[in-house]
Description:
By secondary structure, this protein is of the alpha+beta class. The protein folds into 2 domains: 19-156, CATH 3.30.1330; 168-418, 2-methylcitrate dehydratase PrpD (Orthogonal Bundle), CATH 1.10.4100. The chain contains 17 helices and 8 strands. The protein has helices at 3-13, 21-34, 50-56, 69-79, 94-105, 168-173, 177-185, 189-211, 218-225, 230-246, 260-277, 281-302, 310-326, 331-345, 357-377, 392-406, 408-422; strands spanning 16-17, 43-48, 109-113, 121-128, 131-138, 144-149, 152-156, 253-254. Strands 3-2-4-5-6-7 form a 6-stranded mixed beta sheet. A two-stranded antiparallel sheet has the order 1-8. Strand 5 (131-138) and strand 6 form a beta hairpin. The longest helix is centred in the middle third of the chain and has 23 residues, at 189-211. The chain is globular. The two termini are 39 Å apart.
Amino acid sequence: MNKDEALAFLRSTVKPSLGCTEPACAALCAAAAAQELRGDVRGVALTVNPGLYKNGMSVAIPGFDCVGMDYAAALGALIGSTAAELQIFEGITPEVAERARGLVDSGRVRVDVDRGQRGIYARCEVTSDGEVAEAVIQGAHTNVVMVSHNGTIRFQGEKDGAAGAADPTADLQRMTIAQISRLVDGMGLEELDWLLEGIGVNDAVAEYGTEHPSPVGIASTLQTDLGTSEADQMMRAVGAAIESRLDGCPRSVTSSAGAGSKGLALTIPLGVAARHAGSSPLELARALAFGHLVNSYINAVVGKLSAVCTCATAASTAASAALVKLWGGSEEQMGLAIRNMTGTVSGMICDGGKTGCAMKLAMATSAAYLSARMAVGGSVLRVSDGICADTPEQCIANVAQVANVGMADVDEQILRIMLQKKGEAGGR
């Protein structure tokens, strides 16, 4: 991956997102099908992979008073436009909300889980009088790969993007963490200044979460019980922002690697650290670019939706390495921060998106800060410790092995428990 390709990749993966990404993906899939119909929506059938279901089951939908993938799909079908992409819930009106509740309450919305689909996958069939349309999203939250109307294919694309196009994450995975750092060092402020806007956007969500605390009370407790240290400020802001976002905050966030919570977990600590260190805009912009790229790297290796919490194992780990870069640390120290995180947060499970993720990410933020400080100060976990390894790349590969091979049955059991709580049969 060269500089121009990296800059284009950053533009494609660092985007505004309203509400949790997984319900937005379901809504977007339903909208892609519904916009082919001429009549009123009569029924919606959504099928998603286990990870998408987990992360959409319990999170609030901005501008709506019910939760669940069934409501997300109904809302998307009634909004009927994909133009807003991950900000699709901006299209919720009182009429749309009332009609969505009616569709779900009358049993005309079905949600199934396809256990055979491990990556991002959503398929939605929407019916009206005498018409049926279908859409499929695969590979990325906004990547529509098929749309049909009454059995006729209207659009067909590729799982990983346009036909014949190279997969940028494959190019990223062929790099080392040190090479990513050097690549970013060749970027100027005029090429990266737009990334700085994400700090302000995400800081505003943290402030909103502090001023409008969730009934769960995570942000309120962090506000009361934490001190004024640099690490405490990071934990407080990350916790408030993520709790608010997953509890239905009406403000968009700047996402990273297709996820809003990952964007918050990555950017907010860097913003706090830059203010404490008096970093220049260029230093912060390069640290942000490096962090976003490393986050995407880890997500590509481990998988965006897996048994482990990739907000912690990817975004917070990337934040730790990026903190080292912001502080002027060496390439070796950036890798050592990743090793420290590998031995700290790798066992955190993903049991779906919910306000409780704010507690996980507050703790992961504390670990990110400590791991970075330890790396810079020469305190490093041993290679012989657990799944730690000599290189950051092997550390990340070890996490992926645990998550995707060792924890495959764990993921199934998490899904089974969640489906039993929801009272659903559990799909295929």
